[in-house]
Amino acid sequence: MNVLIHISDIIIPAVIFYIVGYGLVSKVKVYETFLKGAREGLKVVVDIMPTLIGLMVAVGVLRASGFLDFLGSLLGPLTEKIGLPGPLFPLLVVKLFSSSAATGLVLDIFKTAGPDSYAGMVTSILMSCTETLFYTMSVYYMAAKVTKTRYTLTGALWATLAGTIMSVVLARGMV
Amino acid sequence: MQVPPCSEIGGTGINIGKISYGGSSMLNYLWAGMILLGVLYAAFTGNMSEVTNAALDSAGEAISLCITMAGVMALWMGLMEIGQKCGIMERLTKAIGPFLNFMFPRIPKKHPAREYIATNIIANVLGLGWACTPAGLKAMEELANLERERGNPQYLENTEVRGRSASNEMCIFLILNISSLQLIPVNMIAYRSQYGSVNPAVIVAPAIVATLVSTVAAIGFCKVMDRKRAVL
Fold first, then answer.
1. Which residues of B fall within a CB distance of 8 Å from A65?
2. Phi and psi for A148 in degrees, rounded to 5?
3. Average predicted confidence (pLDDT) for chain A
4. Chain B residue closest to A30 (CA)?
5. Comparing A134 with B210, which gets the higher pLDDT?
6. pLDDT tens column, B92-116
7. Cβ separation of B209 and A170 shorter than 8 Å?
8. What is the ipTM metric for this complex?
9. Is residue B208 part of a domain?
10. Would residue B41 count as lying in a domain?
């Protein structure tokens, strides 16, 4: 595990070194080129601000209202039958929108049940194999100015479902 | 060492026409539903003050996130520009060429969309959180350009865009991204060790298996849909 964390520590500096070094060797005006890209990057962030505010407020309101916990406690006995512990349901929903909000819930589960418990294992695997579905969709489609997303949602939900089922199956085999 | 996930950042640098906020976009209803449901439920359970705080705090949080993001986005977009000029991205594209040909058979070989898709996928697999979103957004813009080159009337410049639909390539690219491609869940390992796990890295193997399964499920779905509606 130390090796893994070590690798993840050096990978970003290594990538930066490689790009700048390679650019210099291939006689690209690295600094000017960098500035051009950076300027575009800033514009990107300004464009995305409203989307971010909208999504984060909606998730914040829904979480604070207690609705997700209510849904979790309502569906908990049901989801537990298929191997998904109660607190994982709100996590599954929140993860579709925001990964920073999901991280908060993950740490709660680790704190109360422990990372090596069954719930902790399902959580760990689940978080590793799913993405923030609605977040990614709204941000990426905004870049292409697309509003009709056709079969994207079905496909993305299907992939998320496959990941969720695998997490439960694998965690069962481990604990 | 905490790499933010790929999907936490986003946006676009090029503006193509006007965005239409009307029409029957799925997010339209979803967003309204979340807000209305949240407020109504809070009214019945007496959580109104929490909701007030959450609404204001979340809006502020979004801005702080944008400020952090601005620096990182600028950094990676700058590096990506260099990478493109000196041919690194072209080499990455070649490296996963067979996969691109399989997933996106109808994108012309020389189209810039391929380079950005390749960069996004590789950054995703390696878990380079912040690096993959800039590439992904550029890829979406290039896919929109591709539609324009194909003569799709919804994508023509200076037309009032109302309910522009996604191309098959866009759907496939998005589904692939959402199926999660990151091989090693570094963040999860860090959190696990932080909360006293006996063996934090024990989840690496199952995480890789689960990621592969969800990605294969995504690819299968895309292939079926793509064949069904090959002609847009």
1. 37-39, 41-42, 45, 47, 50-51
2. -95, 110
3. 89
4. B82
5. B210
6. 999 999 999 999 999 999 999 999 9
7. yes
8. 0.89
9. no
10. yes
